[in-house]
Amino acid sequence: MIERPYDGCGKCLLGVRRLSRMKAATSSPERQREDVLTAAASVGGHIIGWADDCEVSGATDPMTRPKLGP
């Protein structure tokens, strides 16, 4: 299973989806989810949680984003 709780295995990953503007030409959160799951699987990791920061600029420091920072 690619999404499961933290288990301390060293390959626990946080999935991040971000859009600065919700519009038709953006990569949808669903598409980003699939891309993140594919990337996690490619390194033998698994997703322990998701940080969804919509309407947040890419210029924003990741650690100060509302969902990813905390």
In short:
With 70 residues, the chain is α+β, with helices and mostly antiparallel strands.
Provide structural commentary.
This protein is α+β, with helices and mostly antiparallel strands and about 70 residues long. About 20% of the residues lie in helices and about 25% in strands. It contains one helix and two strands. Strands 1-2 form a two-stranded parallel sheet. Helix 1 links the parallel strand 1 (about 10-20) and strand 2 (about 45-55).
Features:
1 helix; alpha+beta; 70 residues; 2 strands; two-stranded parallel ribbon
Low-confidence stretches: none
Fraction in beta strands = 15-25%
Helix content: 10-25%
For the biggest sheet, the summary is:
2 strands, parallel
Spatial arrangement of strands, main beta sheet:
1-2
